[in-house]
Specification:
This protein has 374 residues and is an alpha/beta fold. 54% of the residues lie in helices and 10% in strands. Helix 13 links the parallel strand 6 and strand 7. The longest helix is centred in the last third of the chain and has 27 residues.
Length: 374
């Protein structure tokens, strides 16, 4: 892609040089302050399109910020980058606990880079709203991959609701594609709704499994298996190989219980060992096969269009929710109604209705009209 090769020379580890100092008393301080200043929207946008990793990281930081001014700048950057996005393959990766997801992603990413492709790894961790960040830093889990110039690893946004984390990741995909990355890997770090969120923003969904018996499937939500385009049995080596082959057969039988996919793709079960580097290239071949099939029958483009509509509606819902709970009248009255609901003197449904009525009434009083402005 046109930006990726140039972008490989711009590492986030490199410090940009400042301009000629203008402070005659302390020129070194002047240079330091200049480097510390955040570039404007135009500079960030141009930097992203050049594949500059430093400016890409700063643009993503704007996206993740809760500051109103930063959000305005982030949206402007996204709009500028949007025409240059959409040229990557987006792959979602999830797996059961202990499956070796980080090891797999590192091996998979290194294999792609050996094929002269650039890779961005993004994480979705809904628990980060509680922990204020991933428990394990993504770069510390994938040290070798993180050190490669053609790789870019970004931890999960923190301090947001689960929906907010997902939306920030969706916006980050746009910037990474505009920066010229060929492959976007979106990893689920948490559990629960993470898989659904990832599935709603990728072209291919990969589920990593352990070489256990068929009862392994009992610990996986049916919906997650149904979303998968490929099931990979990791750690299929050494003493695990026989068990892995047995598990592969059972997983294949289990897939017959699910309805066929509308895009014509039949999910497959592959064996791999990320630690030994075996079976990784074969998984990539299946992903390319899936891409070829879905592009040919039109479902690839149709899915992306559906996802774009989905994220528009999700963003509307998220912003309405924020508008509601940030309203001063709701903030002041909410504790009283919560207490009434907890004591059982007011039903949750009536409390919600009361809150909505007050919210709409105060909004109407403030605007003087119920009409929406265009």
């Amino acid at each position: 892609m046109k930006h990726s090769k140039k972008g490989h020379r711009e590492s986030a580890l490199h410090v940009k040089e400042g301009t000629t100092p203008t402070n005659p008393l302390n020129p070194e301080l002047d240079k330091h302050l200049h480097r510390q200043a955040r570039p404007g929207v135009e500079a960030l946008s141009e930097g992203v399109l050049r594949g500059d990793r430093v400016l890409l990281s700063q643009a993503i930081t704007l996206i993740e910020s809760r500051h109103a001014r930063h959000q305005e700048q982030a949206q402007e950057i996204i709009e500028r980058c949007l025409p240059h996005s959409g040229n990557s393959i987006r792959i979602g990766i999830t797996g059961v606990p202990g499956v070796g997801k980080s090891t797999f992603i590192e091996a998979f990413g290194k294999m792609l880079i050996q094929q002269s492709l650039s890779v961005a790894v993004l994480a979705i961790d809904p628990s980060s709203q509680l922990t204020k960040g991933s428990i394990l830093g993504d770069k510390t889990r994938m040290v070798e991959l993180a050190s490669l110039p053609a790789a870019f690893i970004r931890p999960s946004p923190s301090g947001h609701s689960s929906g907010g984390v997902a939306r920030k990741t969706r916006e980050t995909i746009i910037l990474c594609e505009a920066a010229g990355f060929d492959v976007i890997l979106v990893e689920t770090v948490g559990v629960g709704q993470a898989e659904i969120a990832v599935h709603s923003m990728v072209d291919f969904f990969l589920l990593l499994l352990l070489p256990g018996a068929g009862d392994e499937l009992q610990g996986i939500k049916r919906g997650v298996v149904e979303m998968a385009d490929l099931l990979a049995v990791n750690k299929s080596d050494g003493e695990n190989l026989l068990r892995a082959k047995q598990a592969q057969a059972e997983y294949r039988n289990a897939l017959h219980l699910f309805p066929p996919k509308e895009n014509g793709w039949a999910p497959v079960v592959q064996l791999c060992s990320a630690m030994a580097g075996e079976g990784i290239a074969q998984i990539w071949e299946k992903i390319l096969e899936h891409k070829g099939l879905t592009e040919q029958n039109g479902s690839f483009a149709a899915k992306r269009q559906h996802q774009a509509r989905y994220w528009m509606h999700e963003t509307v819902l998220e912003q309405l929710k924020a508008l509601f709970y940030d309203h001063p009248g709701i903030k002041s009255w909410l504790p009283e109604l919560e207490e009434a609901v907890v004591k059982g003197t007011l039903s949750p449904f009536q409390a919600a209705e009361n809150l909505m009525a007050r919210f709409l009434e105060e909004k109407a009083d403030r605007s003087g009209t119920s009409d929406f402005r265009r």
